Give the backbone structure.
Amino acid sequence: MDSSGLMGRKSVDDILESGEGEQQLSKTLGALSITAMGIGAIIGAGIFVLTGTAAAQYAGPGIMLSFVLGGIACAFVGLCYSEMAALIPVAGSSYTYTYATLGEFFAWLIGWDLILEYAMGAATVAVGWSGYVTSLLKDVGIVIPARFAHAPGTVIDGGTALFNLPAVVIVALITILLMRGTKESARFNNIMVAVKLTVVVAFIALGWGHVDTAHWSPLIPPNEGTFGQYGYSGILRGAGVVFFAFIGFDAVSTAAQEARKPQKDMPIGILGSLAVCTILYVLVAAVLTGLVPYKELNVPDPIAKGVDAIGIGWFALLIKLGALTGLTTVILVLLYGQSRIFFTMANDGLLPKLFAHVHPTYQTPYRSQALIGAAVALVAALVPIHILGEMVSIGTLAAFILVCGSVIYLRRTDRHMKRPFRAPAVPVVPILGILFCLLLMVGLPLDTWLRLVIWMAIGLVIYFFYGRRHSVLRRKEGNAVTP
């Protein structure tokens, strides 16, 4: 164990031992459930909402290439995640991997950074879920007053909204489910994933015969004089925006401690879910931009607009149901992942112990899950979706860069350790993962970077006033030098 200064790090052996302590999470997940969890997290807001927005505003039909670019970046990162998740099969994801490589200080930063991905991501998707359920209920004659379905201050129908009630309800229901048990949550997730995959595949199959290839010309619309507004820079900006759609495969790694055979199941779950979703994304983008002129896709429900172009009225209702199931599973996996990261950070002393308390019957970190659910529900009720969404992608990309760096580091410092899964062509693959992530970060707006800086500054204050003083690693260091 190297515990000098802020760069003190836990050895891989120490991390594995900490995953075998008294506070145990139940090992109930197989490769199929883990893959379904990945698909459940990935297919959601991106495919049902952001595809249309990014096509209309940034990339045009070239949004297909944006998804390819995002998928390539995630493929390199996914290989690195697979190696780390099989090597270190404990909860915590990139936070844990960073602790084993770059040390406690960077581990804290990435753990704090992941709140943007998981908790804020869940809040973002909950707001999207609210929009779809409000629309669906209106179709069957049930109207939720606009003032109770939007963030405060939003001007709707001549009035001002108070808070987003449907978003609160869905977060509360999923939080209760997660508190009751991982196995039950995984079973629910598997059913929901099957439903939304059926809907997505049906959209591709039904829509393909109605595609007008003229809508794909030009594939890359000429740039309109501003970076990110069509042209090749538009494809890059589009990739940075729809990268939100790929967030989720890394959440699979937070389930490592609850996998029955993590060395085998984690790589299958991570790479399998990523491959399935990337193919579906490109196909959906192709069909959607082939059905509707891309400039008409800047709407809250672009897939439903595509269905209207097909001319099958009943299928629009099915699409909204599919969107709801898709968004529901994303919220479930993101809330799940956030509690597991807090579980690991609390066991390390960087957060209060209540975040690591496991229910004696359900074997879940129920107190942590309840607090996270309450916070996410509050944010979803009060903050507009465009502000939430902008904060998520950049935090995730930063975490991905550190995971790729961790693979390179451990290959040098722990080269003789048995690796159940080895990322190929190291250090080339991790370096390509880092470069692609940096490329996507460059495509994001300046205000997104500013919000990240402010968020990380808040995290530094908490670390130096609480985390550093209660660190288990530092206490061990102190005991070791005591006469």
Remarks:
- The chain is about 70% helix and 0% strand.
- The first strand starts at residue 155 and ends at 156.
